[in-house]
Amino acid sequence: MSIELTQLTSAFLLGLLGGAHCLGMCGGIMAAISLHLPEQKKLPVLLSYNTGRITSYTLAGMLVGSLGWSIQQLGPTANQGLRWIAGILLILMACYIANWWKALTWIEKAGQHLWRHIQPLTKPFLPASTVKQGFCLGILWGWLPCGLIYSALTWSAASGNTLNGGLLMLGFGLGTLPTVLATGFFADVLKQFIAHHLTRTIAAIIMIGFGLWTIPGPHQTLLMPSHESHAHHH
């Protein structure tokens, strides 16, 4: 079952729209990385940092994709359960981005236990002044507890395939690029646009759409008739 362009586009949009959320976490570090760097080094180091970060996302996506595959072997109920969780998480994420309901903070709190072990490892690479330091920092920073990433990962798990899981997270990571890179350069203009509640509300509505699209049910056949025809060909 090949991954569809719609899913990759959705993952990219999720990263792009959720970028508002990333600003709080990654924004600080991006600004910190870019502030002390000479102009000509800014872009290479920021790009290497983001390459590292997206590499981590992709690896995590492949990991949960394999996990999702194992869960799906338990039967259709397990598979549907996975998609329910993914859909609900996306909807919660939407509420979080739009500031309607901050339910996802508890997921981030849970992730902080992991981060406690990883954070000390970032010390030797700070401040990142070379491409190599930037990359290593990005690899580690990609495991920062973040509800948006966890939502995207659950979605990757629901894909039930190692490669698809990795591709979805790659798409998601690329979606976060514009926001996070821009933070290193013209943070203020962008922050105002993304923090604007209209931007956040539109992003949230689109993400709720993704969530509903992920949850299994009769509406699935209306939205994805192509899947049915794929199934018959295999």
Structure annotation, total helices: 11
Give Rg in angstroms. Answer: 18 Å
Terminal CA distance reads 9 Å
SSE pattern, N- to C-terminal: HHHHHHHHHHH
Strand content: under 5%
Structural category: mainly alpha
Q: Unreliable runs, pLDDT <50, ≥5 residues?
A: 225-234
Shape estimate: globular
Number-wise, the strands total 0
Biggest β-sheet, characterized?
Answer: none
Helix content: over 70%
Average of pLDDT: 83
Per-chain topology:
Layout: H1 5-17, H2 19-35, H3 39-72, H4 76-97, H5 105-122, H6 131-141, H7 147-158, H8 162-195, H9 197-214, H10 219-223, H11 225-233
Helix pairs in contact: 1-8, 2-8, 3-6, 3-7, 3-8, 4-7, 4-9, 5-6, 7-8
Outline the structure in words.
With 234 residues, the chain is mostly helical. It is built from eleven helices and no strands. Residues 225-234 have low confidence and may be disordered.
